[in-house]
Amino acid sequence: MTKGMIDDYMEGTREILLNFINQIQMLSPTPTCLKEEIPELNNFFIEIKYLQEDVDLKQIFEGKDEKIFEKLKNYPLAFEKCRADLKKKAKSKSTAAPRKS
């Protein structure tokens, strides 16, 4: 019975982590910000998308979830970096010389 409860708890925490990532992504200044700042996220989502029906989620999450969560703790810093990159790109576009026709 205890093992079943632990498995249920672990399954619930995985769902919470995915929801947490999705909530942070919605706040992101750019659609690719989190994936740029946390490269592991891209492979993680690909594995979940394509392997979840064939492979136990425990194997997909194994070890990756903790690493990703540790990096997600600093998402405000990642967002600041992405905003700064956006400003640089916008500034370079606005200061670029117009092309002659």
Explain what you see.
The chain has 101 residues and is mostly helical. The protein has helices at 2-27, 33-37, 40-51, 57-61, 64-72, 75-95. It has one domain (2-74). The longest helix has 26 residues, at 2-27. The chain is elongated.
Q: Compute the number of structural domains.
A: 1
Q: How many β strands by DSSP?
A: 0
Could you spell the SSE succession in H and E letters? Answer: HHHHHH
Structural class: mainly alpha
Mean pLDDT over the full residue set = 83
Number of helices: 6
Largest sheet entry: none
Q: What's the assembly state of these chains? A: single chain
User: What low-confidence regions span 5 or more consecutive residues with pLDDT below 50?
Assistant: none
β-strand percent reads: under 5%
Tell me the overall shape.
elongated
Helix content: over 70%
What radius of gyration results from the CA coordinates? 19 Å
- End-to-end distance, in Å? 75 Å
Task: Tag the structure with descriptive keywords.
101 residues; mainly alpha; 6 helices; 77% helix; elongated
Summarize the structure.
The chain is mainly alpha-helical and 101 residues long. It contains six helices and no strands.
Helix and strand topology:
Elements: H1 2-27, H2 33-37, H3 40-51, H4 57-61, H5 64-72, H6 75-95
